[in-house]
Amino acid sequence: MDEQSILSFPEWLSEIDENIESKIHSIVKENSISVEQAKKLIEEKVKGGFFSKKDIDFSKMTFKVENSFAIKVNQKRHFETRKVERKTVPYDPEKFTVGFEDEVEDVWEQYLIDKFTKKELQWVRRGTAEVSPCGTCDSRGLIRCPKCKGKGEYYEKCYKCSGKGIIENKCPTCNGRGRVNEGQITVVGGRKIGTGAGYSTREVQCLRCNASGYLSERCSKCSGQGQILVTCKKCKGSGEITCTTCLGYRQLYTCDLITANCKPSEQSFIVSPFEKVKSSWFNSYKDSEYFEIAEELDLGNYVKPAPNDGRVLLEGYDLKLIPVSRVLINDGKKENSIFIVGNDKKVVGVTSSYLDYKKVLIFVVLPIIVAITLIYFFALH
Ligand SMILES: [Zn+2]
Ligand SMILES: [Zn+2]
Ligand SMILES: [Zn+2]
Ligand SMILES: [Zn+2]
Prior knowledge:
Blueprint: E1 3-5, H1 13-16, H2 20-31, H3 35-47, E2 62-90, E3 120-124, E4 130-133, E5 142-144, E6 153-157, E7 166-170, E8 179-181, E9 203-205, E10 214-218, E11 227-231, E12 240-242, E13 251-271, E14 289-293, E15 310-330, E16 335-341, E17 346-348, H4 357-380
The structure holds zinc ion (4 copies).
């Protein structure tokens, strides 16, 4: 019965951590187990009910132990993308002094790793600025006022009569009712009509307002026109306003704007000579080291490569190293793997379970046969 250690690892791991080889060697050496130790650990699990006891008859099996390791790699990336847009703005000569260089800047020329304190950066691309006259105002800086169409004044609805031209006052005789008590009607000479008993509460139409309840009067503010001429509020009567395109600067500034975006991303994967290593095996393992490298590593098939539409600014790696021992158990018919992982020697990951064939027959095979028989029976009758 032999035991051996498997220590192969991809070359790029030593670029993340130059001492990775000695670390792997020492951790595997410290945690290597012999066949006898492996047997004992598995036996304890058998007692603990981990496996069905009668299915593992150690005396009939051969044991082989492979001591190795597993590394969980967490890759963090800062990925930068850039876009170029042509922008035109009013030309303020004091503000826009850049972009007039002779040579045009390459979009990826500036390396801004230290300036990425926020997600987005924007700047004028060198050598792309130009100044042109404003076509909207013919470089006058002023355009015709759209509100008064250049006249400086316009008609507005009369505020006093709300545009009606007349003002309606409540009739004082009938107090707006349109009807009056008959007794209120007076005739020339002051003699009242119908003052006799029984007539005093009779109502008749108000003659003064023609029963409408109000008296109309021509609006004095607008002379009955309903509208009044006012000075344009937008241009204060000048008929012109500041050009909306050049904001009065008479010229326009056009340039390429470069916008750089930096987004962080993360992905993790496992490096181990054993394929079956699970991420959860690392959960109890707390120690980790963080390494940062500036250049992108070629990790082959381990990770998705960075997209082509940008560049990696920063790459960081977090490595967790655990010892893993694979115990190969052969009962003469087939080989099964049991893993013993971590410094605490946890027995995990049985790759092929030891089934109780009698139970399988009773609870799986037999019901299937019964079901098929029943289906067959009912389908025929
Ligand atoms: Zn009246
Ligand atoms: Zn009016
Ligand atoms: Zn105006
Ligand atoms: Zn203009």
